[in-house]
Design a protein that fits this description.
By secondary structure, the chain is of the alpha/beta class. It has one domain (2-228): P-loop containing nucleotide triphosphate hydrolases (Rossmann fold, 3-Layer(aba) Sandwich), CATH 3.40.50. Helix content is 32%, strand content 22%. Bound molecules: guanosine-5'-triphosphate and magnesium ion (MG). Guanosine-5'-triphosphate is lined by residues 60, 62-68, 91, 93-94, 115-117, 170-171, 173-174, 204-207. The chain crosses the membrane at residues 6-30.
């Protein structure tokens, strides 16, 4: 059993590594076609080729809402209301990685999610070095695992002391969800050095409520990232 578990973890790691390599190769090869919020696809002109690329690493425990956030970002432009036909699709646990690219003025932001399952968390820090911003997503209603989220977050903070961090307090729509001030305390954010750029934002991506209520927090999140990149 132990051997099988090791083989499984090794295979997951290999899949994540291979996935990342393919992701980089794919992006280099197809960098002339990127998704733009206001247009379906745009071809980058010579002038636009000076656009900088930034990587945002999206981490957090399994089920926190990482894939849902990426899906939400790819569905809504800067000021578009969610449309009925753009209802979110159910997400599945990410077993390796997941990515999207967003085009904002003068910048292409590559979002890379690594799955949050226990067997994948050990590989998170391998991806920090190439990252410009860390987004750490927390399920605000999952009180029983806030302490695990806290240790994982502080492990990452310790590994990259300079990296700007955005903590997204997701699932604010759920009954009993921790408030922003409760999360600041539960995640010990007050102990983080004042020199680090650290932000705590609320979000709610309830797949059933989104078409009715466009206040998901994703717009503020995207605006903040644009400021940081
Ligand atoms: N009520 C509610 N449900 C949410 C919210 N965000 C995500 N979910 C649901 O939470 C579940 C897990 O979301 P995912 O986006 O797959 O979570 P993940 O962080 O990508 O998980 P892994 O890929 O396993 O690491 C899905 O059923 C989502 O529909 C939210 O803000 N509110
Ligand atoms: Mg996922």
């Amino acid at each position: 059993m132990v051997l099988l578990k090791h083989v499984h973890v090794a295979l997951s790691a290999a899949a994540a590594a291979l996935g990342s390599a393919l992701f980089i190769a794919f992006n280099s090869f197809y960098q002339r076609r990127v998704w733009a919020p206001q247009r379906d696809y745009c071809t980058i002109s010579e002038e636009e080729e000076e656009t900088v690329r930034r990587q945002v690493l999206v981490l957090g425990l399994d089920g926190a809402g990482k894939s849902s956030v990426l899906q939400g970002l790819s569905r809504s432009g800067p000021d578009t209301e969610p449309r009925t036909e753009q209802r979110s699709q159910p997400t599945r646990p990410t077993r390796g990685f997941n990515f999207i690219s967003l085009r904002v003025p003068r910048c292409q932001i590559d979002f890379l999610e690594i799955g949050g399952g226990e067997d994948l968390r050990g590989y998170w820090s391998d991806y920090l070095r190439r990252t410009h911003i860390l987004v750490f997503i927390v399920d605000s209603s999952d009180w029983s695992r806030l302490s695990v989220a806290k240790s994982e977050l502080h492990r990452l903070l310790g590994a990259e002391p300079q990296l700007p961090v955005v903590v997204l307090a997701n699932k604010q729509d759920k009954a009993g969800a921790a408030s922003i001030s409760e999360l600041r305390e539960a995640l010990s954010l007050q102990s983080v050095s004042e020199e680090r750029k650290l932000f705590l934002l609320a979000a709610q991506l309830d797949p059933d409520a989104i078409p009715k209520n466009s206040t998901t927090g994703l717009q503020s999140f995207q605006d903040l990232l644009q400021q940081l990149v």
